[in-house]
Amino acid sequence: MYEPFAGAGSWPQGRADPAAWLDGLGRLLARVNESGLEIAAVGVGGQSPTTVPLDGHGGSITAGMAATCRHPAGNGLDRTGHHLAQLEFLSHEAARPLAGAQIWDWALRCLGAGDVQGLWPGEEAIAGYGERVEVATIIGHSDGSLGLATGTPLVSASNDAYMSFWAGGLGTPRRGHDPGGRTGGLGVAVEATQRPAELPGYFSPVAGVEVVGGPTNGHGQLLEWWSTVSGRSIEELLTLAEGVGPGAGGLLVLPYHDGERAPRWESRLRGEIHGLTFDTGVAEIARAVLEAAGYGLRHVHEELRRAGVEMDVMCCGGSPARSRLWCSIKASVLEVAVDMPEQPEQLSAHGCALAAGAALEWWDGVGAACMDSWPLAEMTRIEPVPAEAYRANYERFVALGDAAVARLDGLV
Hints:
The chain is α/β, with parallel strands linked by helices.
């Protein structure tokens, strides 16, 4: 099930209205109740880093709009520093000190949970954001808010990427995952004992396996941007893009509209379109936008390969993975097989359900010896169809990006 957030299109860049989040959660719970399903427990995750400003330590009453990962406050800092920079900005905006909470912790507090912060194993606790608990912990019980039955266990989850890692089966070495969404990224599972020392590792759902990689900025939001500019729906753009061959007729998009994270980590970058001619139309740019997300993932992948990390298959998540065309482009650009979930936009929610079930001891929690006990998402395998046009455009993608960084540094 899916419920949109009312008014999201009018929010300023990097800001969001917590009241809309709560309204969406309430409508979603109502739909579950109407379906006749019994809610055994509720797990909540969300986008990170996102800070919800609170009036009063430990409360759930918001003090204005939240700051999301797209807000410039904290750009370039680690996760903890990013959150604290967001909170400093929000306090300055309110002209008074505020407390802060991660988005999922705040939502659970609104349902009756206590003053806690839910974290994936190995994540650093954020000072002042609540008592640390790890994913799949029962942190309270519903007080009846939003129509959720009183006494329903409330379970801590974590950020959307980690939860989709879990649901997507990122516990097998050489398996990768792109969480998709408005932004994207690539994580690849490796044996912990074989992780290259220069690469930071994150816990996978399976003991002894870690995840390496990084997030990218240009993904689903690129297609949203082109939909707004062109006046065409996303569905129409995908249909038009299917009629354009690999390489988009030589057109290339640098998807740096809002800067770039991995592997460049350069927030000053901006988007560029190369190869425009009088014959370029809406369809060619749509195709180039889809390919640009693939080139961004391959850029991360090539950096990992240079460090000795290989990938055999990549699971695609988020709303971009609803498009078989887009998944196929990613497979062919990266030259690896892609697993396309049956309900990719709900992959993170599936991970939250895994957390809730683990808290109820229905199956193993994070840190299990293997993935055998988990009801993972159903997938369809897409094999790559490599093309010289993709290989050539990827080389251009890296070279043009290097040139853009050099211009910023005043070297050319």
